[in-house]
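step 3/5: co-fold with coenzyme A
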Amino acid sequence: MAITEATEQDLPIIRDIAYRTWPTTFGEILSPAQIDYMLNMMYSPDALTAQIKDKNHVFLLAQETDNNEYLGFISYEFDYKNQSKTKIHKIYLLPASQGKGVGRLLLDKVAMLAIERANSHLSLNVNKYNKAIQFYERMGFATVDNETIDIGEGFLMEDYIMEKPLIA
Ligand SMILES: CC(C)(COP(=O)(O)OP(=O)(O)OC[C@H]1O[C@@H](n2cnc3c(N)ncnc32)[C@H](O)[C@@H]1OP(=O)(O)O)[C@@H](O)C(=O)NCCC(=O)NCCS
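step 4/5: write tokens
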């Protein structure tokens, strides 16, 4: 498996993985209308381009080396809100690629980069009902707060904020 940094040319791959992963991830948590709304808000070509070009988000892609299939991605931002924290904005693996250690590899890679950057914590938001919470706990994250974000059109994101301290 290879982990590479995505360029603007790779944005359709990220969009494709998100559209194939969100229905199973959020099908029992969010309405179909909210899933459509959030995918469009976060993964439209313009939104993804802005994340890379204007918002300092970096995307890493996980790729199977045997057949070149893309398995998933993670995105992160160093020095989030001028704090010594690296924010994990997104981590999504195709359903068939979950539970095989790829998520751990992507998270470990970002933790290593964050330590090199001298950031002291990883931080992320996760939906309160997402099974990924157990994954994050296993990876050393703990819940530090919760947050309800009004994303418009009457939709809310009801999240926990989880953090992991980093030791160099
Ligand atoms: C969440 C996600 C990124 C985790 O990646 P993954 O490759 O499936 O997880 P890994 O196989 O690397 O698991 C790492 C460890 O966490 C544990 N773990 C993973 N998911 C778990 C779960 N739902 N419950 C309990 N433990 C879990 C594994 O057992 C493993 O522990 P071990 O190393 O001691 O055996 C992936 O499953 C995914 O893309 N899910 C759907 C999208 C999603 O919810 N993204 C997060 C949005 S905030």
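step 5/5: annotate
Residues 21, 25, 72, 91-93, 98-104, 126, 130-132, 134-135, 138 surround coenzyme A (CB under 6 Å).
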